[in-house]
Structure formats: structure tokens, C-alpha cells
């Protein structure tokens, strides 16, 4: 979100309305977040899935 606001402010100040100017920084930011936070998110998702599957027998 911060990258989107920063790019929007840059576009307003410079009056450049190029579509790739908004897309490329957001794409790089999303990629960087996935690289940095990906292992943590995968670990959390794995823990949740194991907990969910382990709890199924107690439901019946």
C-alpha cells in the first residue's frame, strides 16, 4: 500500500501517467515481500494444516 501511495504521489508531482510506472514497483515490492516473508508464511500455513487435520478425528 505504501508503494502505491508513493508512486501515486510521484505521478501527481511529475504529471506522468504511465501505467507501467505503477505496475513495476508494486510487482517488485510483492516479490520482495514473498522472498522475505515466504518461509514464515509457509511455516504458519503448515502448522495450521497439521493442526486442522489432527483435530478432525475429535469432531466425530
Automatic annotation (TrEMBL):
Entry's localization field: Cell membrane
Q: Write down the InterPro entries for this protein, in alphabetical order.
A: Bac_export_3
Per the record, what is one GO cellular component?
plasma membrane
Write the record's keywords in alphabetical order, separated by commas.
Answer: Cell membrane, Membrane, Transmembrane, Transmembrane helix
Q: Cite a single GO BP annotation.
A: protein secretion
**What sections of the protein cross the membrane?**
24-42
Q: Specify the protein's topology with respect to the membrane.
A: Multi-pass membrane protein
Which PANTHER family would you find in this protein's record? FLAGELLAR BIOSYNTHETIC PROTEIN FLIQ
Family from the record: Belongs to the FliQ/MopD/SpaQ family.
Q: What is this protein called?
A: Export protein FliQ family 3
Question: Which species is this UniProt entry from?
Answer: Variovorax paradoxus (strain S110)
User: Upper taxonomic classification of the species?
Assistant: Bacteria, Pseudomonadati, Pseudomonadota, Betaproteobacteria, Burkholderiales
Amino acid at each position: 500500500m505504501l508503494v502505491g501511495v508513493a508512486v501515486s504521489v510521484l505521478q501527481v508531482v511529475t504529471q506522468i501517467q504511465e501505467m507501467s510506472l505503477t505496475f513495476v514497483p508494486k510487482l517488485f515490492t510483492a516479490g520482495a515481500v514473498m522472498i522475505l516473508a515466504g518461509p514464515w508464511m509457509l511455516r504458519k500455513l503448515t502448522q495450521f494444516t497439521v493442526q486442522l487435520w489432527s483435530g478432525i478425528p475429535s469432531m466425530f
